[in-house]
């Protein structure tokens, strides 16, 4: 088993031919390669009709509100996602990172491919990692940054990469701080304090990745998919979306709810590792990105995880005689490796209590 996040995908490389990377802006029709077809893999183990939509709104929480703790707890239990305002990240930094993303994606395809993510790597330009589980391609391109952005940025702009790096590094620093604050707020809403999480002491080396997602305007949006339904393999994810909607979350019992962009707000969603840590009390949220005919959409996700090699398991305080531990311990690296292999069955594959067996994994068609 690899021990570093950067090595998590060694055993499941993602091979994509460069000719599959399209210059989206030059296309007047949706190519067959991108005409999305629902597959059984779209269907997670949930009871909802998968294509129903709802007009319900994701909770918006003012972090300065004195009831923020309770509101966060309620949102995590019932939605697995919420938007935050008064989060302390300067609007100017959000705009700068948005411009940096736009600058990157508007480069010619040949230039972007110079920073292509290697098949077994984490950082760089390419299609979403989960693409290999689907017969058709998604209408999006992505750029993943894990650790320093310098190596990839130098390939994109050999003579002028420092501005991009400065903005990304500043964003990483600010996001890491906010993600820590949000994690303790979320755990606090479960009655968990810092001393209850031994591995998360002051030296706890939490890690984060930045995922820039670009969704060009699409000539046939109803037949395309920006980013297929998935949960994040994180503790939590903080997402900045520009003023174009596209993010949808699955609301149990109701269907897909659009997360309307609110200027300056950030979207926070529960990831699979928080789902495990909370012993299933705060379920990770299934989400996807749809595309539209006239507007380019950009989103920037900060994927926040625990120290790479710490076994994550249900917190002892959330386990008891009436609530046995639902998941076995798993490190972030091991979980990313499992996700790369089993995608939507990864969480079930680490579940205890006989809810899952090897026969289910045998159905993987990856
Ligand atoms: C830390 C990570 C989580 C992620 C894989 C990655 O190494 C970096 C990219 C992340 C992302 C973003 C888009 C959706 C997703 C499922 C994917 O394909 O790449 C997530 C991965 C994840 O959360 O499993
Ligand atoms: O673009 C979006 O709104 C969703 C992005 C996302 O889910 C991700 O990067 O993990
Ligand atoms: Fe996501």
From TrEMBL:
<comment type="pathway">
    <text>Plant hormone biosynthesis; gibberellin biosynthesis.</text>
</comment>
<dbReference type="Pfam" id="PF14226">
    <property type="entry name" value="DIOX_N"/>
</dbReference>
<dbReference type="GO" id="GO:0016707">
    <property type="term" value="F:gibberellin 3-beta-dioxygenase activity"/>
</dbReference>
<keyword id="KW-0408">Iron</keyword>
<dbReference type="InterPro" id="IPR050231">
    <property type="entry name" value="Iron_ascorbate_oxido_reductase"/>
</dbReference>
<keyword id="KW-0560">Oxidoreductase</keyword>
<comment type="pathway">
    <text>Hormone biosynthesis.</text>
</comment>
<dbReference type="GO" id="GO:0009686">
    <property type="term" value="P:gibberellin biosynthetic process"/>
</dbReference>
<dbReference type="InterPro" id="IPR044861">
    <property type="entry name" value="IPNS-like_FE2OG_OXY"/>
</dbReference>
<dbReference type="InterPro" id="IPR026992">
    <property type="entry name" value="DIOX_N"/>
</dbReference>
<dbReference type="GO" id="GO:0046872">
    <property type="term" value="F:metal ion binding"/>
</dbReference>
<dbReference type="InterPro" id="IPR005123">
    <property type="entry name" value="Oxoglu/Fe-dep_dioxygenase_dom"/>
</dbReference>
<comment type="similarity">
    <text>Belongs to the iron/ascorbate-dependent oxidoreductase family. GA3OX subfamily.</text>
</comment>
<dbReference type="Pfam" id="PF03171">
    <property type="entry name" value="2OG-FeII_Oxy"/>
</dbReference>
<keyword id="KW-0223">Dioxygenase</keyword>
<keyword id="KW-0479">Metal-binding</keyword>
<protein>
    <recommendedName>
        <fullName>gibberellin 3beta-dioxygenase</fullName>
        <ecNumber>1.14.11.15</ecNumber>
    </recommendedName>
</protein>
<dbReference type="InterPro" id="IPR027443">
    <property type="entry name" value="IPNS-like_sf"/>
</dbReference>
<feature type="domain" description="Fe2OG dioxygenase">
    <location>
        <begin position="205"/>
        <end position="306"/>
    </location>
</feature>
